[in-house]
């Protein structure tokens, strides 16, 4: 196995919480990077604030962000530069639970971009955090998965993903699709917030293509408003082919090829990770994917106002 499958070449940084648990670094959501970026004059020239999960500091100016302080976390907050126009999007925020204890607030928003007749679009963004990396500046809304690396090297076999969460579903909310191209569409059904952990065994072939088999699966969706916080919630991680498991849902299945996440191969090229099948239940993973999101649909699809708060991520063995 090569040593540079990812731009983030270090294993996910964990510190021992107990003999049976690992806290994911910065998973207590108490430490944040604050970015201040001035948007282009044609958009009004306002200064926007973006947040990232990492060591407490402030970064001024339109600078591409890379993970700081050994943080394994990326967010859907981005600095974009489309047709020379600087635009920012922020759908993930630090929020206060009590006193100095903070959490992450993920919400679905509709970004309006209008600039002197040059650009006139609405782009729906679901607030998401995940283990990986975003590559800025974003230059278009095409192929969103190809603008990020999802997952980090990981070789353990935890039993549960544990975290705290809270959900708020807007009354009479409607699911819409809005990518900035064409008219906005209202879709049938309802959206749900989502948290998942996927363990994969990845390898690279002679042509630089990256393949994967699914080792472990933990995935849940939340479609109702909670009565405050649900603390210490545990998502079980099931190993091997889980399609016959009594708790299996179709959304827990293998990742469709058209929705593949991306990773850097040994040549430094960003390529899709093709999930080809279920691995042996006793297999050792090479990578962990972990995501929390205020939406569960495809890119640019969701319910404006859907909000998910998360905190205190750790792995239980």
Please tag this protein with its features:
single chain, 27 strands, Jelly Rolls, mainly beta, 7-stranded antiparallel sheet, 317 residues, 10-stranded mixed sheet, disordered N terminus
Quick recap:
This protein has 317 residues and is an all-beta fold. It has strands at residues 14-18, 21-24, 32-38, 47-53, 57-60, 73-75, 78-82, 85-89, 92-98, 101-107, 109-115, 119-125, 128-134, 148-150, 152-153, 160-168, 175-177, 185-187, 193-204, 210-222, 230-236, 238-239, 262-264, 270-278, 287-293, 301-303, 307-316.
Helix-strand blueprint:
Layout: E1 14-18, E2 21-24, E3 32-38, E4 47-53, E5 57-60, E6 73-75, E7 78-82, E8 85-89, E9 92-98, E10 101-107, E11 109-115, E12 119-125, E13 128-134, E14 148-150, E15 152-153, E16 160-168, E17 175-177, E18 185-187, E19 193-204, E20 210-222, E21 230-236, E22 238-239, E23 262-264, E24 270-278, E25 287-293, E26 301-303, E27 307-316
Parallel strand pairs: 3-5, 20-24
Antiparallel strand pairs: 1-2, 2-27, 3-4, 6-13, 7-8, 9-10, 10-27, 11-12, 13-14, 13-25, 15-25, 16-21, 16-27, 17-18, 17-26, 19-20, 19-25, 20-22, 23-24
């Amino acid at each position: 196995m090569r040593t540079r499958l990812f731009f983030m070449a270090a294993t996910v940084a964990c510190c021992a919480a107990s003999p049976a648990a690992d806290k994911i670094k910065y998973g207590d959501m108490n430490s944040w990077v604050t970015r201040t970026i001035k948007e282009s004059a044609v958009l009004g020239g306002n200064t926007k604030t973006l947040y990232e999960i990492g060591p407490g500091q402030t970064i001024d100016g339109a600078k591409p962000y890379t993970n700081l302080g050994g943080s394994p976390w990326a967010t859907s907050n981005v600095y974009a530069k489309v047709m020379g126009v600087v635009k920012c999007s922020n759908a993930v925020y630090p929020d206060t639970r009590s006193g100095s204890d903070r959490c992450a607030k993920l919400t679905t928003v509709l970004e309006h971009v209008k600039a002197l007749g040059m650009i006139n679009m609405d782009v729906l963004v679901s607030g998401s955090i995940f283990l990986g990396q975003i590559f800025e500046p974003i230059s278009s809304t095409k192929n969103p998965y190809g603008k990020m690396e999802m997952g980090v090297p990981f070789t353990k076999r935890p039993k549960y993903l544990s975290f705290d969460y809270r959900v708020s579903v807007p009354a009479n909310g409607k699911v819409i699709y809005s990518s900035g191209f064409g008219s906005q569409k209202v879709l049938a059904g309802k959206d749900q917030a989502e948290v998942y952990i996927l363990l994969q065994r990845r390898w690279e072939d002679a042509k630089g293509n990256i393949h994967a088999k699914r080792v472990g699966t933990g995935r849940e969706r939340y479609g109702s408003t909670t009565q405050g916080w649900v603390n210490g919630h545990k998502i079980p991680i099931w190993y091997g082919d889980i399609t016959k498991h009594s708790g299996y849902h179709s959304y827990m299945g293998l990742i469709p090829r058209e929705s593949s996440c991306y990773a850097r191969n040994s040549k430094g090229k960003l390529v899709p990770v093709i999930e080809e099948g279920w691995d042996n239940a006793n297999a050792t993973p090479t990578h962990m994917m972990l995501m929390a999101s205020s939406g569960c649909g495809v890119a640019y699809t969701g319910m404006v106002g859907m909000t998910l708060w998360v905190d205190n991520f750790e792995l239980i063995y």
